[in-house]
Amino acid sequence: MKFLLKKRKHQYYLLVGVLLMVLFFIGYRLITNKITSEAEGLIEVVIKQYAKEKESILQFDFNDFNKFIVDTQKIIESSADLDRSELKNRLLFNSELAFSEENIDVSFVYFLKDNEVFDSYFFGSIDTSKNVLERVKSLEDKSQVFDTVLNLGGKTYYRKIIKHQLQDGTFVVFGYDINLLKYWNYFSQKYSGKGGYVTLTNNEGVCMLHPEIGYIGKHETSFFNKVSLNQILKNYEQQDYKKKKQVKVAVISEYLNLEVMRYYDVIQVGNSELILITSFPLNIFIKESINNIKQYLLWMSLLALLTFMLILGFSRSQLRSQHLRTLQYEQERKRLAISNEQYQQKNARLQLSQLRKKLNPHFLFNTLNSLHVLIGLDKTMSQQFVLKLSEVYRYLLKDREANFSTVKEELHFLEHYFFLQKIRFNNSINLSITDKSEGEALLKKIPFLALETLIENAIKHNEITKKNPLFINVLIEKDKIVVSNNYNPRKGKKEKSYGVGLGYLSNFYAFYNVTSFKTEVLDKDFKCYLPLLSK
């Protein structure tokens, strides 16, 4: 009788144990699916943010390459007010600026009449004239901007060209070649990432950037096996830019020979579209992470065979660990979300640093020469000159948290700086400052060294003689400062330009999303509009 009771009791415990095991494995399955889904979502957020960061970097760099086309368009738009010689000088100056860029190997300017070249200018070590002219002569439009990828002399170039017909029927052709292999070496070393890799093509599918350089310059159809170029471009056109979604597809990588998740984005560069492809190995970024989670839960199920209470405690511990891991993913997502802003801010600060490094030796050399002459002529003025020079360098070397100053600070610095320039040029240079804001604008902010940059830019690029003095006007309004000078470009050999002054100002305002900064040549005056910031 006791034996039967014990047997029934054991059968009851066995049934309860089996039921608990069944319930646990059902719960295990449900929890696994839930955690897997959450983990996949968090990992995908990190991956997308990484792809967006690369998109931001490449969009900034290639739009920076495109600035010379934009500048040429501005020059051509003002060509009606220029004679042929002045137009040519401006185009050559812009072409020389383009050639000075580290990743641009060739720049050129051609003048055509009846499809025949009658004037040409070329900067670089490879003569590309035949290749350029054959393409340009085939264009029927009177004005057109286009780009292409081509191979020349064993190198691969991204060529930007603008063709425009002047009022007299003459065609102007301006362009330059960007060395893609050189740029890829720079990009891959400076922005190397873990796990994923970046590919860039033009809107025809020709590869421009790839970790395997053998692909660069080739039309690689494997990039668009599962999603076509037309689908990607159409998806980009149909969406609001701020809300645009990436095209995502899982494929076998032609480079790694592994299954990867690819994200396709469109980068707008001028009037051209480039296709950014960011690939992530699934085994590394998704499947491996998910398998680890499943393995942890499997160990939990094995421990449940020993005791339900231990499994319950262990599951709580694992859920707590998973919660911490989720918080870590969230922190990583936020870090990547601000990385794009940090990159733009670092770029603006880098240009400011370059501006200060350029100013110090160049400016010091000129001022010391002026001081050397002044010492023998006027001792009192020499002492005042030294005091002004010390004030200038005290302002330059002062530590500051941000790269902007108040209008009042910049005007005070400009007073010392212009005093030194006045000694150097005497009556050949003049400065007037007018405050129409009635003092309201003095505490607002502008970029650090903004006024000095524009004064130095005017001195560097204009003829300054007794017969043709330089007149600089600073007009302070409530919402902006307008700096203007009579425009009289230097002839013959020009002073060396580092090309960072106006670029620094442009990038500064771009970082703060201020679009009203601009420069123009109007009525033979060069004008620059500096918006005022309230913060």
TrEMBL record:
Question: Where do the TM regions start and end?
Answer: 12-31, 296-315
Entry's Gene Ontology cellular component terms: membrane
Looking at the record, the residues that make up the Signal transduction histidine kinase internal region domain are: 351-428
Q: Which UniProt keywords apply?
A: Kinase, Membrane, Transferase, Transmembrane, Transmembrane helix
Molecular function via GO? phosphorelay sensor kinase activity
Q: What Pfam families does the annotation carry?
A: His_kinase
Instruction: Please give the name of this protein.
Output: Histidine kinase
